[in-house]
Amino acid sequence: RKVAIDASMCLYQFLIAVRSEGAQLTSVDGETTSHLMGTFYRTIRLVEQGIKPAYVFDGKPPDLKGGELAKRAERRDEAQKLLQAAEEADIVYLLGNAEDVEKFNRRLVKVTKTHAEEAKQLLQLMGIPFIDAPCEAEAQCAALVKAGKVYATATEDMDALTFGCNVLLRRLTFSEAKKMPIQEFHFDKVLEGLELNHNEFIDLCIMLGCDYTNSIKGVGPKRAIELIKTHRSLEKIIENLDTKKFPIPKDWNYKQARLLFQEPEIIDPETIDLKWTEPDEEGLVKYLCGDKQFNEERVRNGAKKLHKARNTSTQGRLDTFFKVLSSPNPLKRK
DNA sequence: ACTCTGGCTCAAGACGCT
DNA sequence: TTAATTGAGCCAGAGT
DNA sequence: AGCGTCC
């Protein structure tokens, strides 16, 4: 069963989580390898379960997002760059407590172009397809699902639904699944449960706070649902809202935000041909066991697992692993 | 009292041996 | 300058 | 399941 995955999100998590004594794993020349470690083993695990993953990489963020992100940047630049200096000083003075240093390091994690390129090279050698999205990966994933190129998007990010992703899988990573069951959301069932159509759902998500705009102060999940059910569109809501109690954000460009959800910049899925091919064992060994110092035995073992799973295909039906939770109300969000 | 929002903090992977 | 998370859980405080 | 280790 084919599944689309937001690669940048995965890389980010690996960079944060795959650490030893607070520091990322590295090659001989000090280059980070945490993202490769995570991608390699997680992908093998997925393939062994009969899943065919297709990774989707982010392109440029939409302009509108840039505006919002600038605010976060300010916060960071002010607080964190100064904190950086302060904490570095602390380290010098106090030979810092490791926890602070760790926390600090995690906040500065970024997924760079290089990380992405390295991951792509690894996926190539593993025989796993990937796509460069022109813009938001989640939007491209949703398009792949809609076009039937993959069965679902595997993500923790509920915004995938806003892009109209029909099927969304949460907690697909199986080590975590030991603790928590895999959840499968069907967008049409969610809409049914909320008694909304897609456009109304988009307006709802904008109110709840998306990456593209501010949200209305005082309006959280409860009131937002109430409002959209009563008025069915942001235009009508704005007309009827008591703006003394609930002020509309200044220069609120909800229309543009809406458009980014309705017509995101994507590659036409029909032009995309996803191919899962044989892993290149020697290539993997060469790439991972050179400077990057991966254990050769483990890498070869991984390559063989990929090979084996590939040739025993049509095995794993995901259904055996989880129940379909077409949860009528996933809005525990923000 | 109750509901709701929003601000805060935290944690975040996978393998293999025991 | 080339990167800018997220979701969950807990709790204070405002509003009704 | 817990824990040290992966690089």
Automatic annotation (TrEMBL):
One of its GO terms (biological process) is DNA replication. One of its GO terms (cellular component) is mitochondrion. Its cofactor is Mg(2+). Residues 1-79 form the XPG N-terminal domain. Keywords: DNA damage, DNA repair, DNA replication, Endonuclease, Exonuclease, Hydrolase, Magnesium, Metal-binding, Mitochondrion, Nuclease, Nucleus, Phosphoprotein. GO terms for molecular function: 5'-3' exonuclease activity; 5'-flap endonuclease activity; DNA binding; magnesium ion binding; manganese ion binding; RNA-DNA hybrid ribonuclease activity. SUPFAM superfamilies: 5' to 3' exonuclease, C-terminal subdomain, PIN domain-like. Residues 124-196 form the XPG-I domain. It is found in: Mitochondrion. Belongs to the XPG/RAD2 endonuclease family. FEN1 subfamily. PANTHER family: FLAP ENDONUCLEASE 1 (PTHR11081:SF9), FLAP ENDONUCLEASE FAMILY MEMBER (PTHR11081). HAMAP family: Fen (MF_00614). This is Cell death-related nuclease 1. It comes from Heterotrigona itama.
